[in-house]
Amino acid sequence: MKLVAACLAAATALAPFPMAVAAEIAPADVKYDGATITTSLTGTPGNPEEGAKVLANRSLGNCLACHVVTPLAKEQFHGDVAPSLDGVADRWSAEQLRGIVVNAKHSLNPDSVMPGFYTLEVGINVRKDLVGKTILTAQQVEDVVAYLVTLKDAK
Amino acid sequence: GSVGAAFADPVDDKLVIDGKEMITRTKAPEGHPFDEVYSGWLFREAETRATEADSFANPGMLTVERGEEIWNTIDGTAGKSCASCHGDASVSMKDIGANYPKWDATAKKPINVELQIDKCRTEKMGAEAYKFDAEEQKSLTTYIKHQSLGTPVAIDLGAGEMQSWWEKGKTLYYTRTGQLNLSCANCHENSMGKFIRADHLSQGQVNGFPTYRFNTGGMVSLHNRFRGCIRDTRAEMPKAFSDELMALEVYVTWRGLGLSVETPAVRQ
């Protein structure tokens, strides 16, 4: 661990945007305040357009596998394993939504079917190349949250 | 919703194949999480259901014919075919496939039809065991299971240590695997009848295996299906016929007791 940290420090000193890298919170260091996560995981504001892509992309969030999102109706095949995300920002704040996306088993329900997108609390026998990796990056989580907060006023 | 699922429940429809009505819903066995068990056929689209109901249209029937060919073909150093010992499969194999997995006292494990075929090949024919999912393995298994078409699935959990394999299978069924952290039950019990993307989730029953799939244009064995579902949780896949998958087969077969064997079932 120490060695890795030292290398990271050396790398960030040379990186063009040291602050952004330094501010990223590792999955194991994410701090919950109850069910919410109050601070951004990266310090860089989320991009809602990127977030919408992550929701739809099958190898990223694939949120549409389980959730209907009417504004994304141009994407085919929304599942209904879970409640619709229409108007989700009327029900939850950005901080609560961050908590849900990072680890729904912490924020919503310990038995949730929803995968944790930025946690290392995962199932057994994880595919070898994915061990120690999260489904989404910290910035992708921020992008998803930035998109979710636009989902207001469900008709 | 407009972009969501159009329907959710299993359909109210009867499956009749070659004039024989299949049991596609039946009372669940004691201790089962559902009151009623449903064949996967009830969750498929009308066109897929119609293809399974019509033996002339069902592409899986070609595999049944291929299985009959292998049944009658001599292989191995003993110079025998399956027919040399078992004769006419429509008589000797009638209703046999409905009762697997069975306890194998020599191996001290449950075995399925694929493993019984390998036993006869290696012990009686002087032939080699098939590689997993070899075309011949899928064809012969399909042929043997098809001799039980319409017969209710029944297994003997009293034999040998079948009960402890059932327990092990049950534990696995509820164990979350992979980066997506999902168990069989998350999809086939908690979300049964719902859509996951375009897929209408059934109870994940085994009574139609091997099944014909339009997707891949070929037959899919049960352990291939199990492995695919586990892979989709982003987990390492257990080996076919491993203790894990045999335990799952015992348990999942129990979850569908009383459903008719539908081999070769047709899926999307």
UniProtKB/TrEMBL annotation, chain A:
UniProt entry tagged with the keyword Transferase: no
Pfam families: Cytochrom_C (PF00034)
Claim: Repeat is one of the keywords in the record: no
Chain ranges of the Cytochrome c domain: 46-152
Keywords: Heme, Iron, Metal-binding, Signal
Recorded superkingdom: Bacteria
InterPro entries listed in its UniProt record: Cyt_c-like_dom, Cyt_c-like_dom_sf, Thiosulf_SoxX
Signal sequence, renumbered to the chain: 1-22
Alphabetical list of SUPFAM superfamilies matching this protein: Cytochrome c
One example GO MF annotation: electron transfer activity
Record's protein name: Sulfur oxidation c-type cytochrome SoxX
Species for this entry: Ciceribacter naphthalenivorans
